[in-house]
């Protein structure tokens, strides 16, 4: 289940049973990565770094493109494994997760060859200064279970394209597609040790990877709570971090919006991946004049969503990641209802869900105050909560009244409202009349408690590099005029004249 130094390796941690959350059945067992595997993977990455760093970008790009092809050749298997281990619909895995990850590999193959930064120039008399963009060393990356392949891709590709070597720790619940990624890298010709993949739990393997003295950067995607622990551990050794954390995205529907478009956007945006998406629409903020029409249309659309067997291509939404997580999601809805909220649809396990499965129905909740737990906390399930507003200022205030700031959308037919929402909403991404699309060329990452550092795009590539100032003296002779500030000697007059100054 682990790939270290280009070879499959058994773990030395406790045995873990992989469960298919859509059925509750066991898929198999494996031993988690323990401290031995963390150490071995970091040692392998460290040994591989000097040579990998010296490869030219064109050669790294060629390997990345070969890796993309190797992934494409296993696309069906990737989609099947992703769907089985997460419970997400096969349709989502094959049409979104797998092509998204492959496109990301091809994007970073190109990004590796694109030089950014200042050009060489003279900033000190008689010299040329230039900037070298260089990799950092061994990167330790930690990925969550919601999009195991895409999160691995977003971490691995910019890091290795930039010349770093990496140890990726996938979630113990979803190790399958990260392992296939590592196998595809070997098949594509990546040198052993450049990409090591382990699967283990957070407190053991994750914590050890962050704390490891040879890991110079920790790149983490997961909850804000764990992200802060990662930050603390990295602070103790003073190393870099890159944090993609939780979200509670608002979806603001102004009074001039196309209600049908907004309702469809809200349903797709809140139910994608069973709502286990950090950018999912979770808080609908709807002008009072449209509130009833919007809510009724969302209920109709949600009730038409097919929840069931993820392997059936007719299924819209599979199960959540586990029964424990489903119960956590259900708990938010039950407590909201007990406090007077109205559950307009869903709020239950579908009647025909297999025993032991982790399904939950698409849910719309209204009638909550903005201090309600379900309005403020990340539910991470197929649950949309809607509240009305009266003025544009109030809508923006509500959108920003959250510790999170990952993504948001605004629905309007007026340009000035769209631009105002784009400027005033505190989030790393603001969609106008859309919710969800993320592309390899554009940055993804949070404001506020949603983290810092960008995934995707050239900005992400830059995160995995450091820049070095190189100054080259162009003159002849041993003496430099500025040194007179520090010292002068009677010998100065005897030294030859400099040819340039
Ligand atoms: P999580 O924080 O529980 O776990 C994420 C990863 O961290 C897992 O691999 C886990 O094993 C590891 N981990 C746990 N404790 C650790 C520790 N002490 N030290 C090091 N690693 C540790 O998150 P999750 O439940 O797997 O994923 C859901 C969360 O991820 C949600 O909050 C979601 O918003 C967030 N997320 C964010 C983005 C983004 O781009 N901002 C994308 C996907 C998911």
From TrEMBL:
<dbReference type="Pfam" id="PF00171">
    <property type="entry name" value="Aldedh"/>
</dbReference>
<dbReference type="InterPro" id="IPR016162">
    <property type="entry name" value="Ald_DH_N"/>
</dbReference>
<comment type="similarity">
    <text>Belongs to the aldehyde dehydrogenase family.</text>
</comment>
<dbReference type="InterPro" id="IPR016161">
    <property type="entry name" value="Ald_DH/histidinol_DH"/>
</dbReference>
<feature type="active site">
    <location>
        <position position="244"/>
    </location>
</feature>
<feature type="domain" description="Aldehyde dehydrogenase">
    <location>
        <begin position="15"/>
        <end position="470"/>
    </location>
</feature>
<dbReference type="GO" id="GO:0016620">
    <property type="term" value="F:oxidoreductase activity, acting on the aldehyde or oxo group of donors, NAD or NADP as acceptor"/>
</dbReference>
<dbReference type="InterPro" id="IPR016160">
    <property type="entry name" value="Ald_DH_CS_CYS"/>
</dbReference>
<dbReference type="InterPro" id="IPR016163">
    <property type="entry name" value="Ald_DH_C"/>
</dbReference>
<protein>
    <submittedName>
        <fullName>Aldehyde dehydrogenase family protein</fullName>
    </submittedName>
</protein>
<dbReference type="InterPro" id="IPR029510">
    <property type="entry name" value="Ald_DH_CS_GLU"/>
</dbReference>
<keyword id="KW-0560">Oxidoreductase</keyword>
<dbReference type="InterPro" id="IPR015590">
    <property type="entry name" value="Aldehyde_DH_dom"/>
</dbReference>
